Amino acid sequence: RAKLDGKNCLRFYTRDMDMVMEREMQLEQDLHLALDRGELSVVYQPIHSLQSGRIIGAEALVRWNHPQRGPMATELFIAVAEQTGQIEAIGRFVLKVACAEAATWPQVDGVAPFVSVNISARQLRQGALPDLVDAELRESGLPPARLHLELTETMMFSLEQEAIGACARLRAAGVRIWLDDFGTGFSGLSHLRRVPIDGVKIDRSFVSGMLDDADDLALTAAIIAMAHSLGIVVTAEGVESQGQFDALEARGCDNLQGFLLGRPMSAADLVRELGG
Ligand code: C2E
Ligand code: MG
Ligand code: MG
Ligand code: MG
Q1: pLDDT by residue (tens digit) across 119-152?
Q2: Bridge-partner residues for 180, per DSSP?
Q3: Pocket test for ligand 1, best of 35, 43, 118, 235 (most atoms within 8 A of CB)
Q4: Which residues line ligand 1 (CB under 6 A)?
Q5: Is the ipTM, as predicted for this complex, more than 0.90?
Q6: I need a labelling partner for 111 at 20 to 30 A (CA). Which of 5, 63, 80, 218 fits?
Q7: pTM for this structure?
């Protein structure tokens, strides 16, 4: 009886895993076509300065509208693309579109907003990123200082010296480097000294917990204070309520991003928001 259960159980798992693999392979194939068929697009979520209350930049976020399945969950297909290597082609696409669109954005208070592009570990390891960025900046005419690259904390601290060198090269060219989802990687703030960065983005999980959880609030305050003592700018992501806004303002956070201030939107809508 136990044996039978075990067998049934095994068969069940096997079929389940086959289905998961099949779906992933299907996703991989569809993703391959998605670029050629123009199913991928880029939306922009505004980033506000707390001091001026104005939009100072926007994060580029990729979207995939599948012909049969509709809008696909970004985190899911990015994860698949990272495994298969398709993230390199997708990343090139997003970088090209983001630079071209941001180059046309109007100034706000005499300053043109930056565009912030997510970069995956694979793109950075691959080695060609500094040259690619250089080519896209030249082709679009976007000044380097108006391009920010977001790397995740976990990825940054597992990188080889070579990839850290690529970051340094990008920074030397005037591009800004941000650590995304900061606080989730358990890297410790002292690691910040090791890597050449301009800013950190406090992960959404701290912001969503900070009003109910004293630890989240303490960590958020500590990240802001430590970053500032190192001359690093702090952006909080996932700001959804006025309470969170006020708590972050009271602790001296520099910039805010979240549904309270603006959802991801088309480039045309962003330009309208900018008053252009
Ligand atoms: P991320 O870089 O941390 O981007 C922020 C995510 O939080 C976005 O999800 C955004 O829509 C969402 N978000 C912003 N404000 C709020 C808020 O107030 N509440 C809540 N609940 N969510 C908020 P999205 O667009 O689904 O992207 C998910 C992740 O996928 C991104 O996280 C990023 O890691 C990755 N990703 C997106 N676009 C790209 C890309 O072009 N290249 C790479 N490599 N990764 C990308
Ligand atoms: Mg990001
Ligand atoms: Mg983030
Ligand atoms: Mg995140």
Answers
A1: 998 888 888 999 999 999 999 999 999 999 999 8
A2: 152
A3: 118
A4: 45, 61-62, 74-75, 78, 87, 91, 94, 118, 120, 150, 180-181, 204, 237-240, 258-259, 264
A5: yes
A6: 63
A7: 0.92
